[in-house]
Amino acid sequence: MTQYDRSHRPSICGGDQPDAPFPVYLSGEVKRGFQRGSRELGCPTANLDPEDQSPEAATALENLGVYYGYARVDGADSGVYPMVMSVGWNPFYKNTHKTIEIHIMHAYSADFYGSQMRAIVLGYIRPELDYVSTEALIADIKTDIQVAQNSLARPAYSAYATNAFFT
Ligand code: ADP
Ligand code: RBF
Ligand code: MG
Hints:
It contains 4 helices and 6 strands. The chain is α+β, with helices and mostly antiparallel strands. The chain has a 6-stranded antiparallel sheet. A hairpin with a 6-residue loop joins strand 3 and strand 4. Catalyzes the phosphorylation of riboflavin (vitamin B2) to form flavin mononucleotide (FMN) coenzyme. One of its GO terms (biological process) is riboflavin biosynthetic process.
């Protein structure tokens, strides 16, 4: 793997239009995990089962790391919102299986385990890293959220918020 410099991070990722293999379409039921996201990181992540995804999506997400796009959860609060997604083995926590976790940039009024979630992934931000501390991981997640927001603000990306996949 090439060296990745945490101290010099770009504020936007991806070209003016989503580059191949994006857009990547994901859907499935929100699964329960270790519930560390909200408790330890202040960042809840809704988990999808990698086994539930299409072969195209599985291939497209072979690069472990952080991605950005839009997501929607069926239910009371069913808007389409920006999201950041972590795909990997969470080396910091030494998990033993691959996870797909989506943090949606929206304040939901309640948990939504068991609900159907759909997401369109539009770009890749960075590889999955191991960390010396929880604080360092949290700092990078905050940057990821900012990068996702900047990247999605471009017209060719924002257009996906109203894509037919979400209706
Ligand atoms: P788990 O390990 O079970 O995924 P988390 O601490 O990561 O636990 O919390 C994830 C859960 O929090 C989601 O499944 C969802 O029900 C809820 N949740 C509430 N707000 C959000 C949000 N903005 N983004 C993602 N999940 C959220
Ligand atoms: N876990 C890691 O071990 N390394 C990472 O680089 C990493 N990046 C993440 C980036 C984002 C935007 C999010 C939401 C999570 C990330 N995580 C990472 C996953 C984190 O460890 C996970 O959400 C918690 O373990 C709770 O399941
Ligand atoms: Mg989670």
